[in-house]
Amino acid sequence: MQIGILIPGFSADESDWCIPVYLNLVRELARHHQVRVFPIRYPYTQVPYTIYNALVLPTGGGSYTRGLARWRVLRRTLALIEAQHALRPFDVFHAVWADETGVVANWAGEKLGIPTVVSIAGGELVGFPDINYGLQNGRVTRRLVERALMGATRIVAPCDYSVLMALDQLPPERGEVLRKVPLGVDAELFKPPAQELDWRPREFLHVGSLVPIKDQVTLLHLIAKLPNATLDIVGDGPLYPQLEALTHELGIADRVVFHGAVSHEKLPAYYQEARFLLMTSRHEAFCMAALEALACGAGVIGTAVGVLPEIGMTASVGDVTALQEIVIGRTRKHAQLQRARYRMLVETTYTVKHMADGLLEVYEEACSDFEK
Questions:
Q1: Pair 53, 30: CB distance under 8 Å
Q2: Are residues 365 and 345 in the same domain?
């Protein structure tokens, strides 16, 4: 199958973990199919290159732009897609993120006569004005999302939470083209330690950028209500000074360790030493950190967003008391058996191969439907 993938950013080489899950997806698809990737914004070059037998053709659009500058970048991307289609026609075109990538994919689909698949991958369906997050906040971005979703042959959402959110916003007839395909984790990289112990040294772990949508303020208030509980935070971002100051205000500075940014290949060591991952986000389209933790044998506790309700114990967004009750009430017996169950769930549902196979089914369905 000739597959085109349109994405905001993609790895500049095999060691660049720009968006790890999509690098892994391309690697898996390219084993048996011809894959061409079109990154719009990153890397900042227009020179083609190859990764895992996939041809990458960047537009080099740079950071997000508005108005005429944005449309020039998108038109340049469309022209690049058309030129590639003339060389080797695409069977299907897949846009990751239902915004400008989805719009360009649908332009290409209409012009070239090929089916399109658009994946919901981030904040397309939400808007939080208080923290300036989500594409529903702006008139133009809201319109881009609408066009991306309304023009696709198939729409993909990665979890029940995102499926329900999409169904709530789409016309009933568009709900018929919506499919759920979970993201997948690299189960060879993220795995339990070679020798598992009954007791893991890190009690609670949090992995994520220090930004408002992740709501680490709620996380720290939760730790403050759990006497003697310790927390390791992996990630960096603009809220670090505020969050570090808050640990002192709450009297938990001696129980919270900020590790800063950690490279992707070093993350497994943190998960392998953790008993539980804590996530208190206000929104997640999916939450790869939860899958990475599960694959390494760590349990997941958090807010009822993204994939968390399907794989962990959850409470309503911002509900510190309910989260506290979950933490206190969690089982402390049969730790190794629980970790084996976490791992089994990943191996049977959430691997990279599961993700690729699920998308291939959607591609084939889109092609079949398009030909009718």
A1: yes
A2: no
